[in-house]
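INSTRUCTION: Work out how this chain folds

Fields: amino acid sequence; protein backbone structure tokens

Chain under study, with its fold:
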Amino acid sequence: MRRALFKLHFIGALTGALFVVILGATGSVMAFEEELDHLTHPQLFRVAPTGPPLPLTELASRALAAVPGARVTGYGLGVSPDLSTSVNLTGTAVYLNPYTGDVLGTRSGPTLLAQIHQLHLRLLAGNAGRTIVAWSGVLMLFLVVSGIYLWWPVKRVSINRTAGGRRTWFDIHNAVGVFAFAFLFLLALTGVVIGFENVTSPLLYRITGSQPYPGGLAVVPRPGARVLTPDEAVAISRAAMPGATPVAVNAPGPKMPYRIALRYPEDRTPGGRSRVFVDPYGGTVLQAESSRTTAAGTRLITLNRAIHTGDVFGMPSKILMSLASLAAAAQVLTGLVMWQKRRSAATRVRALSETR
């Protein structure tokens, strides 16, 4: 059984090597996606607080002046006073200083970090890529579990640097796999749950006996009625969810409500996990879903994602999951080096036997 499992472990690693390396490399970057974006583009995000912020309607006017002919689709709000506000237009995001209204810059099309994100989620190949990523997670889970089983009889975690060759790479492979086992297992398991969410999400709701909040909320158009400004909608969301910070708001259509995303201090996910839907005609709160009190199934889904991305405990867990992602790639690469050295050794043995 051990020999058969070793062969399956080897064949699986060889078959999925490219995908696991891609997922590991991109995952290590995604753990710090927001931080890297702010670090590499400080001119778009960093501002000096100077009094009360301008109304969103004023910022929208300045954004439209910078991109004539566009239409406002939403707003991105800074979670701290030293961050800019973005006005999302059709095809372009305009970043502004919320205190002075100065345009800091614009973005059109996907950024490099957004491309890395999509490479991790879908391999830049749509639904087909998403399916490959999901099954790569299953493969990674098998490699992690089978690897610890194969290691168990040996129980060696030291690296013999003097041995050289395949033995040293074998020791590195063992050591990385053992020390990162718990995090690799969590990374793979949570990835599988995300990859097969069409199955796992309904299962989590059934296990917890809960139901997700209904989606697709709509409003009845009222011709001639005054439409709430985004600032008024944000103020209503703050009152509906005290203690949470609004981070994004959409521009509603004729039959669409305002959708305001909010974050509580304990929420680590950049986009927030709380939502308030507001009728743009009358200001009525149509639905308020707090991350603190939402359905148990939703909380489990959110927790699973937070563990996978490293958001669950903030920076310490981000560092751990980023290193775990790199460890996954390292395991594949060290395994490939061992395989190559083994082939080279076998070739030399055959060549030597033929000369005798």
In short: The longest helix spans residues 315-355. The first strand starts at residue 72 and ends at 76. Residues 218-294 form a domain with the Nuclear Transport Factor 2; Chain: A, fold (CATH 3.10.450). The chain is about 55% helix and 10% strand.
